[in-house]
Every structure is written in structure tokens, then in C-alpha cells.
Amino acid sequence: VSSTIDDYDYLYKVALIGDSGVGKTNLLSRYSKNEFILDYKCTIGVEFAARSIHVDDKVVKAQVWDTAGQERYRPITSAYYRGAVGAIVVYDITRYATYQNIEHWLKELRDYADPSIVVMLVGNKADLGHLRAITTDDAKAFAERENFFFMEASARDALNVENAFTQLLTQIYRKAL
Ligand code: GDP
């Protein structure tokens, strides 16, 4: 029996959002390392990478979209959110403005994404604890109020990156059952 990397039971589109510089691209490359497939890189500045994981006895493939810097100079288009069943909203724990700006990203989700989208809030750069500007408790309380999953992570130290994606995909999978 031959199997290819393209075999999967479920394919989930996940949108990675958050201010420029919070570490989205690094989180994605950290996650997709080892099984990296750069599926597409298009001129409008959207790229995505995919990786499959096992949930129960199923192969769940996440197709994760990254803005590739597009958020710097123009709003992300509705196509970015179309069909997305999960979103990872990233802020930088050392920059308060990126935490405040979550409101902007949530508005985009409300405007463009499916209302049932599963959201994971990620406070990235947890390795820079000495520069922390947002407490874990504040972010956790905010996430609970909004019904989001929450994790602090570090793309640099590979802390909780795998966990964040796995938890999000597992929740999407369970919800779809
Ligand atoms: P993006 O604009 O959101 O895609 O952010 P990037 O992935 O390009 O990262 C922006 C900057 O933050 C780069 O200089 C990265 O090296 C740095 N960075 C990303 N993740 C981490 C992290 O977990 N810890 C630290 N210390 N730096 C990070």
C-alpha cells in the first residue's frame, strides 16, 4: 500500500492574522517544519503552508494562510477568510499595541469570516518574558470572555507552537462531528 503526503480525511483552512511583526510567519514556518509544503505563493502577497496531524484515527490537514506582509499596506481581502474554519489571532506579548489591535482583527473576522470560526488567541514571543507588556491573566480572561482558546507561545523557542495548532485543529474536528 502506498500513501502520499496528500492523503487526508479532513482539510481545514486556517487564517493567521495579527499585526505586522508579531511573528506570524515564524510561527507558521516553525509549525510546518519537517513536513513543509509551500503550496502557493501568489503576487497579491498571500501564501500558505500545509501540514497534516492525526486526530483520533483521522488525518487532519491544516492549510494555513499567512498574509506575507500584506497587512502592512492594505486591508486583507475577504478571500483570505473565505472558507476558513479556524483563525489564529497573534499578538506580541512585548508590544501592547499589538494586543489592543486584536479588536481590529476581530472586526475583520466578524465582517468576513464565518460566524462559527474557531479562534485561537496566541501571545507570541513568550521567550521575551523580561519585556512583557501584557499579563498572561489579562489575555486569558479576555480570551475566556470571547470564547477563544488561548496560549502563549514562542516561535523562537518552539514553545507551544505545536500545541496551539493541535488544539485548534482538534477543536475544529470535534465541532464538525
Ligand atoms: P510577521 O510580520 O507577523 O509575519 O512576523 P515575523 O514572523 O516576520 O517576525 C517578526 C520579527 O519577530 C522577526 O524579527 C522575528 O525574528 C521575530 N520573532 C518572531 N517570533 C519570535 C519569537 O517567538 N520570539 C522572539 N524573540 N522573536 C520572534
UniProtKB/TrEMBL annotation:
Keyword GTP-binding: yes
One annotated GO molecular function: GTP binding
Record's keyword terms, sorted: GTP-binding, Lipoprotein, Membrane, Nucleotide-binding, Prenylation
One of the record's GO cellular component terms: plasma membrane
Topology in membrane: Lipid-anchor
Chief place of localization: membrane
Keyword Plastid annotated: no
Compartments, as annotated in UniProt: Cell membrane
Superkingdom of the organism of origin: Eukaryota
Family classification: Belongs to the small GTPase superfamily. Rab family.
Protein name, entry field: Uncharacterized protein
Organism field: Artemisia annua (Sweet wormwood)
Parent sequence residues shown: 2 to 178 of 270
